[in-house]
Amino acid sequence: MAFFVDPIGFIIFWLRGLLSGWGLAPGVVEFIMDALGVIAIGSFGLGFTIFLIWVERKISARIQGRIGPNRVGPYGLLQTFADIIKIFTKEHITPRGVDVAVYNLAPVLSVMAVLLLWAVIPLASTVVGTEINVGVLYIVAVGSLGTLAILIAGWSSNNKFALLGAFRTVAQMISYEVPMVLSLLTVTLLARSMSVTQVVAAQDVWFILVSPLAFLIFLVSSQAEMGRAPFDLMEAESELVAGYQTEYSGLKFGMFFVGEFLHSFTVGALVTTLFLGGWRGPGAEQYPILGIFWFFLKSFVIYFITLWLRFSLPRLRIDHILDYNWKYLVPLGLMLVVLTAVLDKWLFMVNPAINPWLRALAQLAMNAGLFLFANFLVETRNRRKPLRQPVGAPRPVARPPEKASITEKAA
User: Fold this and answer.
1) Helix 330-350 and helix 212-226, axial crossing angle in degrees, nearest 10
2) Residue ranges in 118-236 assigned as alpha helix (H)
3) Residue 406 in domain
4) pTM above 0.85?
5) pLDDT tens digits for 18-49?
6) Contact, 33 vs 12, CB < 8 A?
7) Residue 56 and residue 130 share a domain
8) Quick one: which H or E segment has residue 65?
9) What gap in Å lies between CA 284 and CA 278, rounded to an integer?
10) Do 248 and 218 belong together in one domain?
11) 105 with 79, same domain?
């Protein structure tokens, strides 16, 4: 019965007892259990990506009016395995003039950055890789490794298109980390802890209802961090022929591929953990297997939203992307952090045992007022701003005055 209630916890308990029964020292047992946990999380992430690639192809086909994979295996389920075989058998080409060590490190770093994020995400009440008291800070630090991987891939490839993709990475992805950190700071203020487990435990009311602006800022910033449409400027095929990964082939290109697809679902898992109560749901505390079910159900909803955005919106211009970040998201995030801290402090000073729903309503009203105020400022600025001529448009040429005809002069 315990196996069906908490299968992962039962397996961990059984393995720990088995190793202890072999006469191993407690420190050795814990080391082996940690190593097995790392292998399990890594294998799950890499194996789950095979399914995600098929799901993304099917969803993109439906949104864009296509059929999608339907030949290799039932419903095209084996198409991804055929692609894996093709990638593994392709030749590994290293162009001349590249920085070999950095060039080969970038694909590994891109996958490693995504897998490391799963170490602190609680899948259920009894299932979490590791519990650290600065889990939110860990997410920010590890997430930046993916940006670094793209940057060094473009920089070390000795290719102008890859280099332009790296430059765009600096301009876009590093810029959007600022509002992302501000939204995570808002979550930390609401949870009063940087522990990811404590953030989930503090969500008696989901934080998406308490601070929807923080949720929207995090979702938009995450889409930019993934480098997916409408923020896919660093790999824009139309002008950069894949950008930072132009010079990669075979398995090295496949590792970028795996990191990108897994990252898209990892964003759904992070949003679920930070704003949707994580694994919490009906019966999840008594039955951890239900917690895993609720966690993945919520994650798939957010995952579908990110795919919906990717396959529906066109690519934006770089100046529009940066203007939106620095002139709207960052000021909005700063105001949100300050007002959230002040309001939450005042609420707990008035009533230390305040009802969670009353607190949520007060924060929600503040978010609505801030959103309306921010948009009022933007509209006021746009009305006062003079219309500018588009870049590259021909300027009107002043025509010389036409000479009057003889009849006009006589008149």
Assistant:
1) 150
2) 135-156, 160-191, 196-201, 207-210, 212-226
3) no
4) yes
5) 888 888 888 888 889 888 888 888 888 888 99
6) yes
7) no
8) none
9) 10
10) yes
11) no
Q: What angle do CA 80, 83, 84 make, to 5 degrees?
A: 90
Which of 226, 208, 12 has its CA nearest to residue 123? 12
Three-state SS for 127? strand
Q: Domain count for the chain, please give it.
A: 2
DSSP secondary structure letters along 256-308: HHHHHHHHHHHHHHHHHHHHS-TT--TTTTT-HHHHHHHHHHHHHHHHHHHHH
Q: Do 61 and 49 fall within a single domain?
A: yes
Range of the domain at 46: 1-89
Give the span between the Cα atoms of 295 and 203, in whole angstroms: 14
Q: For residue 30, is it within any domain?
A: yes
Q: Which two tokens stand for residue 395?
A: 């300027």
In a domain, 184, yes or no: yes
Residues 54 and 125 grouped into a single domain:
no
Separation between Cα atoms, residue 359 and residue 349, nearest integer Å: 12
122 and 208 co-located in one domain: yes
Residue 105, in any domain of the structure: yes
Tell me the per-residue pLDDT of 284-335, one tens digit each, with 9 for 90 and over. 888 888 999 999 999 999 999 999 998 888 888 888 899 999 999 999 999 9
Separation CA 322–CA 178 (nearest Å): 12
